[in-house]
ECF transporter S component (Lactiplantibacillus dongliensis), 196 residues
Amino acid sequence: MQRKSNAYQISVLAVLTAIVIIQNVVPLFGYIPLPGLSITTIHITVIIAAVILGPKDGAIIGGVWGLIDWIRAFTAPTSPLAPIVFTNPLVSVLPRILVGVVAGIIFAGWAKRHHPAVGMVIAAVAGSLVNTILVLGLIGLLYRNAAAGFYQIDLSKLMPYLLTIVGTNGIPEAILAGIVTPLIGTPLLRFKQRHR
């Protein structure tokens, strides 16, 4: 029975890793451009991994996402700011790992005592906000001058500007994660429990 459970774990980890890679490579799959903003969907895959497989595997999937972002910052940057900020693994990799860790821990703690679908929503919103707040916070903290120049704003207005991005991008991403994660995670969790 343990071998069957391990096979399931490895299979799901491999599939979700492949999905994260595809989301990073295929246009409009990992980032949905809207007028004035871009909604990230890759974090949802990381959160689903954390919910279904636990915080350790969620961290692995988040790490894959972060490493791809880090490599792209050197080879095919998505913006003029990317080679400056995303070449630092503290900005490109660490927040993405923590998405999986935070979502996994929150879900594991919630699911023991309450309805799993509600735990998925809470874990998804928290994981999404961890990514947004940490990435933008670290950019503001470590690259204030470069970020202010890139966004063409006065340095004193950088933090309010970044907080606006949290509101315009981060909140919709968190809502999207809170809706999609239980829709995909609930059947996967049931399947996992049936095949233990």
